[in-house]
């Protein structure tokens, strides 16, 4: 770890999938860090590897076909002990004791995130009892009621006995957050937590996450393809394209001063509330086939600022620090 | 839950009435009747019965009345006196014939089902969890053989091998010296010694089917989000597989428990014939062929009732394991 204020650092992380069609380099050299008590937002189009990055941290990549082939995920534990999650046995006890306990995760589809055959309360209690086997069941039950109450589920004492199909999507995501918080994690990974929800519920869930972060001081990684979501909650933002982060900076820096042409493209593709009403400009073209990534910068054929003879030749430079803490991977900024 | 069971139970009553009508119609459907076949046989032997004799025969078997009266008499006797009529061929009350054979039929199907589940469930889980592993390929290969091989052929092959290697001929559930003996420990042992062949034969195809079903549904479930959720909260892999996806994937298996019995009786007639099992299957076949209508109707009635009750049990079990079923 370079920096003691970071709780998690990913260094040159590579997660590849070995399929019959060929190797999919879903994550191919990601360098990111999460600060204590802060929120990192990871944004990118579908298939850019943001979800795989998140799943790699908790070693939830299905294997086969997926595998972390290179790089490290340095995580600073409660006792300041630093552990490389990428080197752990994905089925071993070490990672199992971190999952749901020190690092927990919520997912994109709340409707299928709970097992259909057990009550919500039972599944949350289970998470508590896995990591606190000596705790009495009544105590775990009370704790579950408090958690459900804390995430804003009305009549928590009754709803604890409800089954997942009796909850709405928004309620389920709240319950999911309650379960993720049940062991007071130090890092919460939210993988597209509001994608399946409608906009009002989305706002409520994001607000809830921020409140809980203020109360508990946990760090959050929020993964989304929705710019409004990251700009609302993230302290730092990473933009991912085809398995790599192309730009990484504090939120204000990256929102006010996007450097990478892809980031600029994303920013132009959403309507602005305060500016003039302009025509939206979607990013041209589509993401290349991840199995046959063209030589040079993978964004080159969609890039409006593409420099022929440069961008389509070698790999784009490793991260260039354009201003303090503002990193970009683009030939435009290389010396 | 209590309400659910009661409701399901009440539905059974009209269902059984409909089944009784249908089974009666079914056994009446083939042209002619037992008496006509009987008279034809007499004629073939050169004996010419006169009108009076024919009428006497018809009234003796109750065949001179309209069909609906025959049906109501049959039902009345069945409900109030437990009398299901007499078999023309066996010259014996139908209830006696059924009582003689039903326990063996039920026992064999239960044991075959138990055997299927014990073998199929762990293999199915393994096969799905380690999809495309060598184990999965081997199981799939033998599974297809099990499905494709006709059971009676398998029975014959098995009998042949047992005979060649041990010199012991399998001629039924009991060895000849025990057939008419009363129940004793020695008879039980003898039954166990003989029973495994029919059990293995009957269970093979079913096991292969169950493995395929469980493997397929479990593969679907394993991909679902809730499995990752359970993993992400730190559950041990083996425990979470059994507790979450398997509990869902097993539902289709549970809902077919009730069909086991008719499958044994209907589908395994040939096996029963080959292995000389005293089950209801061969009797049902014989009674339909000889238009022994009360016997055929009685067996169909009993089987349908058992199937309906089996299905009810399946449904209750399903409601118990699947909260979504309970509330609908």
Automatic annotation (TrEMBL), chain A:
<feature type="domain" description="ABC transporter">
    <location>
        <begin position="8"/>
        <end position="267"/>
    </location>
</feature>
<dbReference type="InterPro" id="IPR003593">
    <property type="entry name" value="AAA+_ATPase"/>
</dbReference>
<dbReference type="InterPro" id="IPR017871">
    <property type="entry name" value="ABC_transporter-like_CS"/>
</dbReference>
<keyword id="KW-1278">Translocase</keyword>
<protein>
    <submittedName>
        <fullName>Peptide/nickel transport system ATP-binding protein</fullName>
    </submittedName>
</protein>
<keyword id="KW-0997">Cell inner membrane</keyword>
<keyword id="KW-0067">ATP-binding</keyword>
<comment type="similarity">
    <text>Belongs to the ABC transporter superfamily.</text>
</comment>
<keyword id="KW-1003">Cell membrane</keyword>
<dbReference type="GO" id="GO:0016887">
    <property type="term" value="F:ATP hydrolysis activity"/>
</dbReference>
<dbReference type="InterPro" id="IPR050388">
    <property type="entry name" value="ABC_Ni/Peptide_Import"/>
</dbReference>
<keyword id="KW-0813">Transport</keyword>
<dbReference type="GO" id="GO:0015833">
    <property type="term" value="P:peptide transport"/>
</dbReference>
<dbReference type="InterPro" id="IPR013563">
    <property type="entry name" value="Oligopep_ABC_C"/>
</dbReference>
<keyword id="KW-0547">Nucleotide-binding</keyword>
<dbReference type="InterPro" id="IPR027417">
    <property type="entry name" value="P-loop_NTPase"/>
</dbReference>
<keyword id="KW-0472">Membrane</keyword>
<dbReference type="InterPro" id="IPR003439">
    <property type="entry name" value="ABC_transporter-like_ATP-bd"/>
</dbReference>
<dbReference type="Pfam" id="PF08352">
    <property type="entry name" value="oligo_HPY"/>
</dbReference>
<dbReference type="Pfam" id="PF00005">
    <property type="entry name" value="ABC_tran"/>
</dbReference>
<dbReference type="GO" id="GO:0005524">
    <property type="term" value="F:ATP binding"/>
</dbReference>
<dbReference type="GO" id="GO:0005886">
    <property type="term" value="C:plasma membrane"/>
</dbReference>
TrEMBL record, chain B:
<keyword id="KW-0813">Transport</keyword>
<feature type="transmembrane region" description="Helical">
    <location>
        <begin position="295"/>
        <end position="321"/>
    </location>
</feature>
<dbReference type="GO" id="GO:0055085">
    <property type="term" value="P:transmembrane transport"/>
</dbReference>
<keyword id="KW-0472">Membrane</keyword>
<dbReference type="Pfam" id="PF19300">
    <property type="entry name" value="BPD_transp_1_N"/>
</dbReference>
<keyword id="KW-1003">Cell membrane</keyword>
<keyword id="KW-1133">Transmembrane helix</keyword>
<dbReference type="Pfam" id="PF00528">
    <property type="entry name" value="BPD_transp_1"/>
</dbReference>
<feature type="domain" description="ABC transmembrane type-1">
    <location>
        <begin position="102"/>
        <end position="312"/>
    </location>
</feature>
<dbReference type="GO" id="GO:0005886">
    <property type="term" value="C:plasma membrane"/>
</dbReference>
<comment type="similarity">
    <text>Belongs to the binding-protein-dependent transport system permease family.</text>
</comment>
<feature type="transmembrane region" description="Helical">
    <location>
        <begin position="9"/>
        <end position="29"/>
    </location>
</feature>
<keyword id="KW-0812">Transmembrane</keyword>
<dbReference type="InterPro" id="IPR045621">
    <property type="entry name" value="BPD_transp_1_N"/>
</dbReference>
<dbReference type="InterPro" id="IPR000515">
    <property type="entry name" value="MetI-like"/>
</dbReference>
<feature type="transmembrane region" description="Helical">
    <location>
        <begin position="106"/>
        <end position="126"/>
    </location>
</feature>
<dbReference type="InterPro" id="IPR035906">
    <property type="entry name" value="MetI-like_sf"/>
</dbReference>
<protein>
    <submittedName>
        <fullName>Peptide/nickel transport system permease protein</fullName>
    </submittedName>
</protein>
<feature type="transmembrane region" description="Helical">
    <location>
        <begin position="138"/>
        <end position="163"/>
    </location>
</feature>
<feature type="transmembrane region" description="Helical">
    <location>
        <begin position="248"/>
        <end position="275"/>
    </location>
</feature>
<feature type="transmembrane region" description="Helical">
    <location>
        <begin position="195"/>
        <end position="214"/>
    </location>
</feature>
């Amino acid at each position: 770890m370079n920096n003691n204020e970071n709780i998690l650092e990913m260094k040159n992380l590579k997660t590849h999938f070995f399929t019959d069609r060929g190797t999919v380099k879903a994550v191919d050299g990601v360098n990111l860090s999460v600060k204590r008590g802060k929120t990192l937002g990871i944004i990118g189009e579908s298939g850019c590897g943001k979800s795989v990055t998140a799943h790699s941290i908790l070693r939830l990549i299905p294997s086969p076909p997926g595998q972390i082939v290179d790089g490290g995920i340095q995580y600073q534990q409660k006792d300041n002990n630093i552990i490389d999650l990428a080197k752990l046995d994905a089925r071993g006890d070490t990672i199992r004791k971190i999952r749901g306990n020190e690092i927990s995760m919520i997912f994109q589809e709340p409707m299928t995130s709970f097992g259909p055959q057990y009550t919500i309360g039972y599944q949350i209690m289970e998470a508590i009892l896995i990591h606190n086997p000596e705790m009495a069941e009544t105590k775990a039950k009370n704790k579950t009621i408090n958690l459900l109450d804390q995430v804003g589920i009305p009549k928590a004492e009754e709803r604890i006995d409800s089954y997942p199909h009796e909850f709405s999507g928004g309620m389920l995501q709240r319950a999911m957050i309650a379960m993720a918080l049940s062991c007071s994690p130090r890092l919460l990974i939210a993988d597209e937590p509001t994608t399946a929800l409608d906009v009002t519920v989305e706002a409520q869930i994001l607000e809830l996450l921020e409140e809980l972060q203020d109360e508990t001081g946990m760090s959050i990684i929020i993964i989304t393809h929705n710019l409004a979501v990251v700009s609302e909650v993230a302290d730092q933002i990473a933009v991912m394209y085809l398995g790599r982060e192309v730009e990484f900076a504090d939120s204000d820096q990256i929102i006010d001063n996007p450097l990478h042409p892809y980031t600029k493209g994303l920013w132009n593709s959403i309507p602005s509330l305060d500016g003039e009403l302009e025509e939206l400009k979607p990013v041209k073209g589509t993401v290349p086939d991840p199995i046959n990534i063209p030589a040079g910068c993978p964004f080159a054929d969609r890039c409006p600022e593409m420099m022929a003879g440069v961008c389509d030749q070698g790999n784009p430079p490793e991260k260039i620090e354009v201003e303090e803490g503002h990193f970009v991977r683009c030939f435009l900024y290389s010396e | 839950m209590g309400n659910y069971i009661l409701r399901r139970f009440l539905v059974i009553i009209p269902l059984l009435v409909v089944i009784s009508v249908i089974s009666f119609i079914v056994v009446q459907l083939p042209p002619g009747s037992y008496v006509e076949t009987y008279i034809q046989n007499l004629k073939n032997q050169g004996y010419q019965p006169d009108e009076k004799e024919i009428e006497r025969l018809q009234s003796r078997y109750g065949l001179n009345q309209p069909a609906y009266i025959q049906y109501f008499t049959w039902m009345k006797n069945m409900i109030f006196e437990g009398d299901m009529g007499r078999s023309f061929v066996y010259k014996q009350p139908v209830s006696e014939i059924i009582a003689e054979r039903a326990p063996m039929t039920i026992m064999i199907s239960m044991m075959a089902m138990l055997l299927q589940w014990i073998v199929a469930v762990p293999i199915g889980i393994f096969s799905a969890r380690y999809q495309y592993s060598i184990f999965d390929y081997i199981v799939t290969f033998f599974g297809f053989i099990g499905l494709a091989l006709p059971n009676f052929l398998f029975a014959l092959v098995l009998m042949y091998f047992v005979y060649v290697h041990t010199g012991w001929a399998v001629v039924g559930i009991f060895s000849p010296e025990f057939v008419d003996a009363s129940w004793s420990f020695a008879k039980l042992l003898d039954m166990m010694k003989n029973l495994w062949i029919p059990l293995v034969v009957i269970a093979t195809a079913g096991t292969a089917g169950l493995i395929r079903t469980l493997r397929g549904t479990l593969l679907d479930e394993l991909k679902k989000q809730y499995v990752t959720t359970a993993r992400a909260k730190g559950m041990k892999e083996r425990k979470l597989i059994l507790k979450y996806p398997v509990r869902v994937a097993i539902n289709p298996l549970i809902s077919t428990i009730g069909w086991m019995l008719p499958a044994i009786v209907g589908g395994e007639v040939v096996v029963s014939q080959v292995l000389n099992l005293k089950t209801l299957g061969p009797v049902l076949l014989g009674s339909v062929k000889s238009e022994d209508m009360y016997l055929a109707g009685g067996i169909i009635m009993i089987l349908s009732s058992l199937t309906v009750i089996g299905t009810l049990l399946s449904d209750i079990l399903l409601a118990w394991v699947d909260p979504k079923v309970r509330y609908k």
